[in-house]
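Homework-ish question, so no full write-ups if that breaks the rules, but can someone show me the predicted structure for this set?
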Amino acid sequence: MLTCSQLGRTLLPPESRVLLADINFTIERGEVLAVVGPSGSGKSTLLRLLNRLDESTDGKVLLNGVDTRTLAPHELRHRVGMVMQRAYLFPGTVAENIAFGPQQCNQTLSPEEVGCHLAQVGLPGYASRNALTLSGGEAQRTAIARALANQPEVLLLDEPTAALDETARRGIETLLESLIRQRHLTCVWVTHSIEQARTMADKVLAIESGRVSAFGSAAEVLGA
Amino acid sequence: MLNYFFHSQLSLGIAECVVAGLLAFTVMFLARHRAPGLLRELPLAEFRGLVQIVAVGTVLAFMLRGPQWTSLFVLAAMMLAAASIVRKRARLIPRAFQLALISICVGAGAVLIIMIFFGVIPLKITMLVPVGSMVIANTMNTQSLFLDRLRGEVTSHIGEIESALALGATSEAAVLPYLRAAFRACLIPSMDNIRSLGIVWIPGIMAGMILSGASPLFAALYQFVVLTTIFSSAALTCYVSSHLVTRRIFTPQDQLLLRA
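A: Not a homework solution, just the prediction itself:
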């Protein structure tokens, strides 16, 4: 279960700008929350507060009832995975990218486990490929497998299809849809696409100018 | 040609300085479209360097009559000045002056103490101040290069660094590839100096020693000693810096601070 309570972030002086204020929601295990809103409304900032890539200045985030500020940042990020707009793969092979997360907590993935993660994202046989030569869609699939290799309890998706062409976008959407359903993943999915939110989400959080403008089921917020 | 117009040593020296300064300015003027900021910086840097070196020459002349230990104060002042110059080049890195001062004191200080202990650098003002200044100046340059390169590496790989953090890496692990790249790049000039010694250049100390009557072979060996000492201090300074810098560009919660 993931809960946000009065969550907010205000930049320090001299900027003193409120990026996000008074965000409240709870999602249960296995639920998908779509975060929608115009560009610059604070959607990505919210995700970055959830895994503490940025620090909140107000409120708190609870992961299974535990304040995330009491967890070591690397432990929290191991449990709350993230897929960004761009894949940002590391130099090396695809297998090295997949093994990166588990390596950070001294776990070694066997070649079979790496193969299994790659097969799940539709990239069987890609383990020895150079990660920096992959196409946009392949790179994003690798980034998804890399995030899932940590076996996260929550997956944060920051517009994972925004930088892709139409074909790759449809492929990634289908992949994420099946992964979320198969693995019963708890997700916070930032998206621009109302259609994507309607199809994928159990709940929808609409943000405007850093504040919640609506929260509820997809049908309540987006209409039928 | 200048000897023809200027007869006293002082006036000749000043004329030589003017020619050298103008030459540097002309070169930068020709290259002004590549780095317009440097053209503006150059006259002040030249004037400042000239005043400083003349002041040091005057102080040295005065100190030669005093006790040997006073040279330690000169070296300490040089370290402070070097740290201040590094801070200007590494403005975006929080608490850069403190970082630079600690690194230079440890890097240059430790290497100088070891060389003095073994008697390689005699504890004489005439040796300690010039050799010490070369060591400190090179640690300063190398550290400026290191921090500038690191800033460039980090700001152009923010996505990769934050991806690593988001996968559970500590800040040390996330920034390691970029620390390595910066460390390697900043030591290339010092390494090339050693590699090209005698083939591409015959440095000042060796030339000076030969001119003052030392055996060319001893002068050559001593020049190697000085260059490797410089390399050791530069490498140690950047090594210390590389350990201290991570805590300055990340928060204790492993959040990246350095963004522009």
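Now go work out the reasoning yourself. Hint: Chain A touches chain B through 25 residues (CB under 8 Å).
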